[in-house]
DNA sequence: TTTTTGCATATTGTATACCATCATACAAAA
DNA sequence: TTTTGTATGATGGTATACAATATGCAAAAA
């Protein structure tokens, strides 16, 4: 019996995924030094594989490599975060507007289902699941509008602010405000109202950015306290 | 005497630049297979370095890597090209509008100088120089607005349509229309008129996209002819 | 003739060993 | 206190080896 017809993943692929996850989920701290040999042992692969992963992560700007000194986890400054949210606003607003103009009923139903699921996850404090489903919510929207290039960019930008997003989602009051915004977006799409949908998106991201920028300050205070 | 205080570039860096240039300038054809050993000999470096470059280029989507079959130069379909120009329009319009709101006189003077230089290069059919200076024109605008993340995205998107851009610039009638558009953008920035500036940008890119999409059809006809 | 099978070859994925150079931290000397 | 060595460890880069996979081509079958 055939249990899997999929191509087996290469070691580089799986290692890359694990490293990416470790960085975006905050397992490695911003600025933390990544030593090749250590990563080899932790992932059980050769230096060859690790070095290839490092090139990928560098290109994705999840890590910074200074020649002869090696890679470390990328750090974000407030200006970068602000810019990332600005660009996300442009890309996501446009995608949502496109989607609103053409969305089928099944798509709207899918979006509504994700809204419910996300709200439940947040009530259960299951942040990780909420992140996954939020991603799927947007993925549905970008797919409907066939915005594949834009989706790719959004994913990369989100990767860079991954650490912040987790905290943003779990932030105080966000467990109700977030889903409320997503429902507003969904409602506007349902009514085929591109402008309202785009505006709801912009408002949503504006709120998220404010929280993220606040979050970015906190760690510094911790250092000063200690 | 010290002739250079700069850090010497690593082999990976120079190799990557050369490969990127070779692809974006069309030295390698879209879809063409890239064999590691061959690249090693052509660049005079080891397989390790080439493989690291491949990771970078894959992440930049200049090449496509299928496991166990190796890398080949990425191909573009019309939908992707259209999307890339759409996104460029968003990012560049926004940057230009920001720039228009704050631009200093020296910046405007710099932009005007680039417009002249580009026009001259095009009259001399020096496409490569025109591309370089067009890049600098936009770089000036994004720098003025401190849009570094956006600039990075624009550069990557431009890399993907590099082959098309060269032909677009040298296209019939483009040697006057292109600079005229850039001058319109510059003029609007000079008058601190963000809306007009953004609109001029959108119009410019709309024209460029039309030419690029036409260009994308041509090679197929060649195949049919042969 | 056309299609299928099977094999030889080329290429990739991965590991390992090696070395020169560079960075860093720490000890010694000024 | 500042400077200078110096030891250690990490990186940039090379070479080599080998299994697994892909590809092209020839032989066999239809």
From TrEMBL, chains A, B:
Keywords, A to Z, come to: DNA-binding, Transcription, Transcription regulation
Looking at the UniProt entry, the stretches that span the membrane are none
A Pfam match is: GntR
InterPro entries named among the record's database cross-references: GntR_C, TF_FadR/GntR_C, Tscrpt_reg_HTH_GntR, WH-like_DNA-bd_sf, WH_DNA-bd_sf
SUPFAM superfamilies the record matches: GntR ligand-binding domain-like (SSF48008), Winged helix' DNA-binding domain (SSF46785)
User: What molecular functions are annotated in GO for this chain?
Assistant: DNA binding; DNA-binding transcription factor activity
Q: Where does the record place the HTH gntR-type domain? A: 9-76
Q: What is this protein called?
A: GntR family transcriptional regulator
């Amino acid at each position: 019996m055939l249990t899997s017809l999929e191509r087996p993943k290469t070691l580089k692929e799986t290692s890359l995924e694990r490293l990416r996850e470790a960085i975006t989920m905050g397992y490695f701290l911003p600025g933390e030094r990544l030593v090749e040999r250590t990563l080899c042992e932790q992932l059980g692969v050769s230096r060859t594989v690790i070095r290839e992963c490092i090139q990928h992560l560098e290109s994705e700007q999840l890590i910074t490599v200074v020649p002869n000194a090696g890679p470390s986890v990328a750090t974000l400054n407030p200006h970068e975060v602000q810019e990332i949210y600005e660009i996300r606003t442009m890309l996501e607003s446009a995608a949502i507007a496109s989607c609103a103009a053409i969305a089928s009923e099944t798509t709207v139903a899918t979006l509504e289902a994700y809204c419910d699921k996300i709200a439940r996850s947040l009530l259960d404090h299951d942040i990780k699941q909420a992140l996954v489903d939020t991603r799927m919510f947007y993925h549905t929207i970008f797919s409907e509008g066939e915005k594949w290039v834009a989706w790719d960019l959004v994913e990369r930008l989100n990767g860079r602010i991954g650490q912040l997003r987790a905290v943003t989602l779990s932030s105080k009051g966000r467990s109700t405000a977030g889903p409320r915004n997503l429902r507003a977006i969904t409602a506007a799409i349902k009514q085929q109202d591109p402008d309202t949908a785009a505006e709801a998106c912009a408002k949503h991201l504006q709120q998220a950015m404010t929280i993220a920028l606040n979050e970015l300050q906190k760690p510094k205070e911790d250092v000063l306290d200690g």
